[in-house]
Write a structure and sequence with these properties.
Length: 185
């Protein structure tokens, strides 16, 4: 109980007092973007407002949570299919352990007993569906990760707290490759 109280106190103190790295240093604010207005004070309503005012920003902001929920749901479906596969497999093992000739194979590789073959095919079908659900969950998780990254930087211009923003271009020069880099001082 005492550890929980200490942990709660630490969390509350951290929420109330932002760390130094969480604040934009004033000497870098003007250098990072001379034409941009100064950032709002930390803790103000505009500083905490999400930057997803456009339709695209709203879709990205809420879509990331929708795809995250989808990844969780697809993983649950995969787990259920895997459990069904395990049940069918365990039933097949029970048949095979009942007698020595219960799980003999025919020349074509199938079980001679129809019930054993049916359990084997059901187990394989459930395992295949579990793999398909897991693949879909991984693809959805990949999309969720992309949406989280896009939502971190909706303008695409990079963070404002870099003291010397740069621009890099790659192109062809006299039949070869060239790289140009500009630093704003």
């Amino acid at each position: 109980m005492k550890r929980r109280s200490i942990f709660l106190a630490i969390v509350l103190v951290q929420r109330a007092v932002p760390l130094a790295a969480q604040q934009l240093a004033p000497q870098y604010a003007a250098v990072a973007s001379p034409l941009a207005p100064p950032p709002p004070p930390v803790g103000s309503a505009t500083a905490l407002a999400p930057s997803h005012g456009s339709f695209r920003g709203t879709v990205v902001h809420y879509g990331k949570w929708l795809t995250a929920a989808g990844a969780v749901a697809l993983t649950v479906f995969a787990a259920n299919e895997n459990q069904q596969s395990q049940r069918q497999w365990n039933a097949l093992l029970t048949i095979c352990r009942s007698s020595q000739d219960a799980c003999q194979l025919a020349p074509d590789g199938t079980y001679i007993r129809r019930d054993a073959e049916a359990l084997y095919q059901l187990s394989r079908a459930h395992a295949s569906r579990a793999n398909q659900w897991l693949f879909a969950a991984q693809a959805t998780l990949f999309a969720t990760t992309a949406l989280f990254i896009i939502d971190l930087n909706p303008g695409g211009g990079g963070p404002d707290n870099i003291p010397y923003p740069s621009e890099m271009r790659v192109g062809s020069v006299n039949g070869g490759a060239g790289v140009e880099m500009r630093l704003a001082f």
